[in-house]
Amino acid sequence: MDRGGSKRKLFQFAFTIAIAVLLALAVQSYAVKPYEIPSGSMEPTLQIGQRVLVDRFSSRIGSDPEIGDIVVFTPPLSAVEEEQQGPPEDKCIAGEKQQESGQVCPLAESVHAEQAFIKRVVAGPGDELKVVNGIPIVNGEKVEGDWETVPCGHGYGCDFPTPITVPDDSYFMMGDNRPGSDDSRFWGPVPRDWIIGHAVATYWPLNRIGGL
Question: Residue 151's pLDDT is what?
Answer without folding.
Answer: 92
